[in-house]
Structures are given as C-alpha cells and as structure tokens.
C-alpha cells in the first residue's frame, strides 16, 4: 500500500499551480494524493491574466476534510500540505481541522499572494495565516516575498539575507524552514535555505532561465510532503524536492499566461 498525503489548497485551472500541481507531484513521488479545495482561481486571458478568485464555502471545506480524515485514520494519513487559503474564514476552518485531528506533519506553503497579484491586497488574510496556521506548521516554505513578510525584513538580496530570514522565520514558527530564493537572489544558482534550528544548509541548483515558473513553489512543498510521508526527515525531503522541482522547471510546459508551467513528468 502506498503512503498517503493530503493537500488543502486552491484549484488553479490551467494546471500549473495549486492543487493540480500538488496531486501531480504526489503521483510523481509515488504517494496516494487527496485534495480538499479551498478556492477556485481562474486566470483571465482578456484582462492581463488577472486572478479571478472564488472561495469555497467554509462548511464545504470542512466537509471535504471530514470525508478524507474519516476515510483514512491517522495511522494511514499523517501528512498534510497547506497551500493557498485565500480568506480569513478559510484559514479559521482549516486551522480548526488541523487542531481537531492533529497531523504529525504539516507542510505549509504560506501563499500570501499568487504570482502576478497585487501585493498587500489581502493583509487580513496574511495576518490570519501567520496567527492561526503558521504555529501549527512543522515545515514552512516561504518564497522571496513571503520570507520578507514573515521575517519583517525590508529586503532580501543576498544569500546571507536569505539565511537571516530563514533563521528569523524558524524563531517565530518553530518549524523547519525552506526559504526559497528562486530567481530573485542574484547569481548563477537558484538557492533555497533550509534551517530547522540545528542544521543550516543552502540548497543549490543552476538557475534555469531568469523568469519564475508557475507551480514551482507548490510542487516543492508537495514533494517535501510526499517525501516526509514516505519517512524522510525534513532535510532529506527538502534536498529531494529541490532536485525534483529543478527537473520540473527544466521540462516546463509553455503557456500564453505570463508564466510557463512546471511539468512533474519526464
Ligand atoms: O503559485 C501559488 C498559487 C497557489 N495556489 C493557487 C494559485 C497559485 C497561483 O496562481 O492559483 C490556487
């Protein structure tokens, strides 16, 4: 029997990011995937690829998690990945579900805004995520923008800055942190910083172009979840996930949207 992993995330219809990326990643990493949808995002091809966003009703989110946790007891299902939440009501519902039926491994991708959205549009949502879900996380995977927001740093320009951010985010969350530099830290390598309070490791891979790819962050967190579900430590999982996502970025799918999509296959 395969190991199991759940994603609680939004639908991103084009299949680059969100729950679609998570489920493809779970399959590619050989774990049985489940998804509870928090929202539906539809890019708008006629309006600058603006993100049209519809939240799923809080009661329906709770029902989905109830169905999943009822079907598979905590012995089989101990790992959950949290992706885009979108509203304070969703965050409260998901946080309650995580407290009701504690998961051993909570991998939080703290999606504060989607790529291309206006920063700062949803401060109340960001604050709710920090207050209610971040304390429950065992692994957290902030991107460049989210690392600045969570650490309170004004700028993260260098590897040293990213290390400082990872340490700060560990202090405030207690989680193992994978702070993603992506294409936003200058230099030939895409670097991510792992820090769990004991081990500091800079994960490196040569950059594949200079433009971000949709779904890389979702797939990284989902791959970490899959590896942890199979028994890896957070550090082992982060290393494997980094290699997996580097491949997925390399064999990307071209898109008319501003970002190409990662491909989790060969
Ligand atoms: O890449 C972050 C992300 C996560 N989840 C959903 C999204 C996006 C970005 O578009 O739509 C549902």
Task: Characterise the protein shown here.
This protein is of the alpha/beta class. Helices cover 39% and strands 22% of the residues. The protein has one domain: Ribokinase (UDP-N-acetylmuramoyl-L-alanine:D-glutamate ligase, 3-Layer(aba) Sandwich), CATH 3.40.1190.20. It contains eight helices and nine strands. A nine-stranded mixed sheet has the order 3-2-1-4-5-6-7-8-9. Helix 2 (58-71) runs parallel beside helix 3 (88-100) and helix 3 runs parallel beside helix 4. The two termini are 24 Å apart. The model has no long low-confidence stretch (mean pLDDT 95). It binds 3-hydroxy-5-(hydroxymethyl)-2-methylisonicotinaldehyde. The site of 3-hydroxy-5-(hydroxymethyl)-2-methylisonicotinaldehyde has 14 residues, from strand 1 and helix 7.
Cofactors, ions and other ligands in the entry: 3-hydroxy-5-(hydroxymethyl)-2-methylisonicotinaldehyde
Question: In order across it, which strands form the biggest sheet?
Answer: 3-2-1-4-5-6-7-8-9
CATH architecture: 3-Layer(aba) Sandwich
Helix content: 25-40%
Number-wise, the strands total: 9
**Do you know the CATH topology?**
UDP-N-acetylmuramoyl-L-alanine:D-glutamate ligase
Note the main sheet: 9 strands, mixed
Reading the helices and strands in chain order gives EHEEHEHEHEHHEEEHH
- Domains counted in the coordinates: how many? 1
